[in-house]
Amino acid sequence: MRRIMLIGMKCWAIAVVALVAASPSQAATKYVADSLKGTFAFQLHGITSFAPFFDGTAGKTNSGIASAPRQDIMRVGVFTSDAKSNLVGRTVATTDDGITTVVIDYNWTGVYTVTSNGLGTITIHAPTDADINSCKTGDGTPQTGCAAFEGVETYEFVISGNGGTKAIILTETDNAGGGAKIFLTGAAWTQNTSHSPGGGSSFPFPF
Predict the structure, then answer these.
(1) Cβ within 8 Å of residue 199, ≥6 positions away
(2) Residue 23: which of 15, 31, 13, 11 has the closest Cα?
(3) Which of 97, 65, 94, 93 is nearest to 77 (CA)?
(4) Average of pLDDT values for 62-71?
């Protein structure tokens, strides 16, 4: 009888543990604006839409590829969130217009929203001339008027992780560049300057 009681109690305990583990209220991760607090390093690269291949031949309407504006094709940078929906960042962008490459180092500000499941939106404000730290061609020749190359941008993102280390997957959703648009996509990771073992976070995927 005692053995039967012990087996019964063990099965009951396992059932309770399974019920708690399966409970949506316990398992679900809830995100708020504060979930994005901290400084993040990011890397973005370009993906083209179908438009560049529509050159007016084969019955397709010309997308305007020949007159497409200068656009970013790669970026690295950092941004800091104040946990109150505001962002401050710095970006080094490699831009191209089909003829010359220009590298722009600039500061920016932005805002963000986050839903409880970690999905969110980032809006980056267009920089002014005062925000440009440097602007030069690939051979180092200084350029002017570079603020005009960077406009307002919007990104959708999702947060992975809810502790001190997080990854944020980003994809650009605006189309201010016109028909022949290069969309930027990539990820951001929490930046940790601690020298203690395990203090940093590695990039989770190669972009």
Answers:
(1) 192, 193
(2) 15
(3) 93
(4) 76
Q: Nearest-CA neighbor of 119 among 26, 31, 15, 16?
A: 31
Q: Residues 162, 102: one domain?
A: yes
Closest CA to 131 of 150, 107, 111: 107
In this model, does residue 59 exceed pLDDT 70?
yes
Range of the domain at 6: 1-29
Per the CB < 8 A criterion, the answer to whether 73 and 108 are in contact is: no
- Confidence band, pLDDT 50/70/90 cuts, at residue 173: very high
Q: DSSP state, 37?
A: -
Backbone conformation region of residue 109, classed left if phi is above 0, alpha if psi is from -120 to 50, else beta: beta
pLDDT of residue 162: 63
Q: Using 50, 70 and 90 to split pLDDT, how confident is the model at 195?
A: very low
Q: How many domains does the chain have?
A: 2
| pLDDT tens readout for residues 131-163 | 999 999 989 999 999 999 999 999 999 998 766
Q: Is 165 exposed, middle or buried, given 0-12, 13-18 or 19+ CB atoms closer than 10 A?
A: middle
b/e burial code for range 45-78 (CB count within 10 A of at least 16 → b): bbeeeebbebeeeeeeeebbbeebebbbbbbebe
Same domain, yes or no: 63 and 144:
yes
Cα separation, 147 vs 174, whole angstroms = 18
Do 103 and 138 reside in the same domain of the chain? Answer: yes
Tell me which residue of 188, 189, 181 sits closest to 73, measured CA to CA: 181
